Every structure is written in C-alpha cells, then in structure tokens.
C-alpha cells in the first residue's frame, strides 16, 4: 500500500510553505549582509569575521536554556514569535541605510539579535516536526524540508545577487524581513495539538539543562555526531569570515556572479536531498550518515585552488559535491537524533546538540578573520580543508559503521534510557551477512510495516524525502542550517 504524501497533511503543508517563504528570504540576506559590510561599509577581514561570529554567538549564549523553554512552552508560539523578531530586526537595516545612519555596530546588533531568535526557532522547529508527522515519517518530512532549503539556496543567491546590483545590498535585506512575516502568518495557521508539561513537573532551569547534557553525553553515537558536526562548523565559521573577501577581492567576482555561483553550488544540496530516499533504502538510513561525508569531503580541496577564469569552476565543483554529502549527512543525523529521543526530551537534546555544534561557529568566525588578516583568504581556506577532513573521523570510527538502519523509536513519554539503549545496541551488533567493514554482502528489504526500521520502502510519489534545517556541514559556498 502506497503511503499518502505528506503534502496531503495540512499542518505539514503549512510548515513546508512557511519554511519555503523564509528560506528564500534568508538566502538573500546570507548574501546581502556580508556584502553590506564589505561593499557599503568597507569592512576588513577581521570585521567580517566579527559579523560571522555575531550571527552565531547566540548558540553559546542561550543555546542550553532555550531547550528547556522549548520543552516547557507551546512550540508553535515560539516559532511565530521568533519569525516576528527577525522581521523587525532585519527591517532596521534598510531603514538605517536610507537615513544615512547604517554602521557596522548596527549590523553586529542585528546579527546577534537575529541569532538569538534563530536559536529558539531552530530548536523548536526540530522538536516540533515529530509531533506533526509522527516518528515513522521523519525521514520523509526531514528530506522534503531539506529540498526546500536547497531549492532556496539555488534561487535565493541568484535573486539576491541581482537585487543587490539593482537596488544595493541594504535594500535587498527587505525581502528577508517580508519573508519572515509571511512565514509567521503560515505557522500561525497550524492547528496541531501540543502537549505542554504542567508547571508542577518543572524541576528548575539548571537541573533540566543538566538532564539534556547528560542525555547527549551518555549516548555514544550522539557524542560522536556532536564532535563531527562541531569540527565541521568550526570550518564553516572560518569559511564565512573570508569567503566574500576571497571571491570579491582575490577572484574579482561581482555580486551578481557570486549569486550565480552559489546557486550552482546549491544544486548539489538539492541533488543530495533527492538522493536521500534511494540512498537510505540501498545502503541504509543509518549508514548514509558516515558514508556521505567520507566520500564527498575530499572534493573540498578544490575550493582554495580557485583562480580567475576557468578555474572558478573548481570552486563550483568542490562545493557542489560537498553539498551533496552535507545534505545526506544532515538528513541522516537529524533523523537519528529525533528517532532515539523521547518526546519530552526533544527540546533539550536538540538545544544541547545545537549548543555544542553551533557554538564553534563564532569561534571559527573569529579564527578565520584573524587568519585571513595575517595570512590571507586563500591560506585560511586551506586550514578549512584540513579541519573539514578531521570532521569525517568521528562518524567513520563510530558504531554507526555496523548499523544499517535507524533504531526503533523510544517510548514517547519515557525518560530516554530505552531509546538510547536501542540505539546503542543496534550500533554495537553487526548485521547478519555483513563483512567486517560493515558493507552489506546482500541487500535485505526493509519491512514496509516497520516504521522504526527507517524510511518507507516507497515514499510519497511526489518526490524523494529529505530534512530539517540542519546542523552543519562544511561550508564551501552558502551555509545551511542544520
């Protein structure tokens, strides 16, 4: 029996629509804000590094308590509020520019404030999806949302580059502010019932933060995923600090050309999202987590080899292939996290993971800015390549090598030990018919009636699955989410 498409699910369709609107606007701002700093305010490498750090420092500042609050409050309300805050902050940029008062300090404040709102949005977003679609549809739902993000990365930079050349970078930021308003309106129409814990069940902020930290720290695979993604995002932060300077001042590209380049690169992410379903069925929904980045990461070395002329294609090829791996990795690891964590713990688990893996982004931004000023943008990109390669090691050496598919879902109301035990047990025991390398000798079908085994054998006819905003991945080209 064919599983009905998630697009027939009203609440998921609203979430999908809201994400589509905001992602296109976000991609315009991802290009516009650093170009405002570089072209309009003549920022140095260190100053652009500070801007990159300000955009992600919020995960260090409020990442852990955000998880507790997300578990205590209605998640839809958090999503809508975060969208409205980001809309107001971004709208201030073109207004200040119009009246001649725009400064780097304001950009830092807008970046930090938007980052604070993004922390709450992203933690609530990843924790909300399981209650909307059910745990047996997580891979499908996550993958469809990843297709949105990567489609936006294709259209957004090209649109943004054109708008920046026609209207200037500050005015282009208006599109993102409007997109967040549209997203808030659509999210406000979701009518799913949420179970909010009674006030009597609260045990104090620090104690609940500790529960989230202990849950992640005691789960071997989550620890290794956190280590890998944190290293990748350290590289992401360094890349963000020097990327625009490298492309504009070293390679000599115009904003419009950069937009087109990023759009080409983002087709790789869309390709990865389309491959999630076939790859998870063929090699396993757990195995794609480490195989994806092991195979694609070496192509990152093409990025610092970029030169003017035909060698600009090296940037496009390297970033394109790496984007495929990042999307497959993000879909797999986000779905794994959602699958092994009980409902009551999702907010704290996601916040702890975000604190650990996004907390390295501002550190990378500062380090990239300093390295860029001392040694130049190209040398910094070679450091990025080295760290990206190191990020592959934890998942490749983890128990994931002996898992084919995701473990069974835990008791939604349980404390987390059963789900954790299931994940660890599945990781420690090699599957029958597998060689010592973990590569299957023969393919075995996944039962269609076992949602815990991984993605459904025949996902929706409207396209292959793929996920939430994700957490990471090396960033040659426009950054993602996760």
From TrEMBL:
Membrane topology designation: Multi-pass membrane protein
Keywords annotated in UniProt: Cell membrane, Membrane, Transmembrane, Transmembrane helix, Transport
Domain of life: Bacteria
Region described as Disordered: 401-482
Pro residues composition-biased segments: 454-464
A single MF term (Gene Ontology): transmembrane transporter activity
Domain Major facilitator superfamily (MFS) profile: 221-482
The protein's name in its UniProt record: MFS family permease
């Amino acid at each position: 029996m064919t599983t009905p498409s998630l697009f027939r699910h009203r609440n998921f369709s609203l979430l999908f629509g809201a994400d589509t609107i905001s992602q296109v606007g976000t991609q315009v701002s991802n290009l516009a804000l650093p170009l405002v700093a570089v072209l309009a305010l003549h920022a140095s490498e260190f100053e652009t590094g500070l801007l990159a750090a300000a955009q992600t420092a919020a995960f260090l500042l409020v990442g852990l308590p955000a998880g507790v609050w997300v578990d205590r409050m209605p998640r839809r309300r958090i999503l809508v509020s975060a969208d409205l805050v980001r809309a107001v902050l971004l709208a201030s940029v073109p207004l200040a520019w119009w009246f001649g008062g725009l400064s780097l300090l304001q950009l830092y404040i807008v970046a930090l404030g938007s980052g604070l709102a993004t922390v709450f949005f992203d933690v609530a977003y990843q924790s909300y999806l399981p209650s909307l679609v059910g745990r047996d549809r997580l891979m499908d739902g996550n993958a469809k949302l990843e297709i949105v993000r990567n489609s936006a990365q294709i259209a957004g930079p090209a649109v943004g580059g054109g708008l920046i050349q026609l209207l200037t970078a500050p005015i282009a930021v208006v599109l993102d502010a409007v997109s967040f308003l549209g997203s808030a309106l659509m999210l406000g129409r979701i009518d799913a019932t949420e179970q909010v814990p009674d006030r009597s069940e609260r045990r104090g902020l620090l104690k609940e933060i500790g529960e989230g930290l202990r849950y992640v720290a005691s789960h071997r695979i989550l620890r290794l995923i956190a280590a890998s993604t944190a290293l990748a995002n350290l590289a992401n932060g360094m890349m963000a600090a020097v990327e625009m300077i490298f492309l504009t001042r070293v390679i000599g590209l115009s904003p419009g050309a950069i937009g087109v380049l990023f759009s080409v690169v983002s087709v790789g992410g869309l390709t990865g999202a389309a491959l999630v379903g076939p790859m998870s069925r063929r090699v396993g929904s757990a195995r794609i987590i480490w195989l994806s980045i092991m195979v694609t990461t070496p192509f990152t070395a093409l990025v610092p080899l970029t030169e003017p002329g035909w060698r600009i294609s090296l940037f496009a090829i390297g970033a394109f292939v790496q984007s495929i791996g990042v999307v497959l990795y993000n879909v797999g690891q986000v779905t794994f996290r959602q699958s092994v964590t009980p409902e009551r713990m999702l907010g704290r688990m996601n916040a702890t993971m975000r604190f650990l893996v996004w907390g390295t982004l501002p550190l990378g931004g500062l380090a990239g800015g300093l390295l860029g000023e001392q040694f130049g943008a190209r040398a910094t990109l070679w450091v990025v390549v080295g760290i990206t390669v190191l990020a592959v090691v934890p998942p490749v050496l983890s128990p994931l090598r002996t898992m084919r598919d995701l473990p069974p879902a835990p008791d939604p109301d349980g404390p987390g030990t059963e789900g954790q035990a299931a994940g660890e047990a599945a990781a420690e025991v090699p599957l029958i018919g597998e060689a010592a390398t973990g590569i299957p000798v023969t393919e075995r079908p996944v039962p269609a009636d076992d949602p815990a085994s991984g993605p459904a054998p025949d996902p929706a006819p409207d396209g292959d699955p793929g996920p939430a905003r994700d957490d990471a991945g090396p960033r040659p080209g426009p950054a993602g989410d996760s």
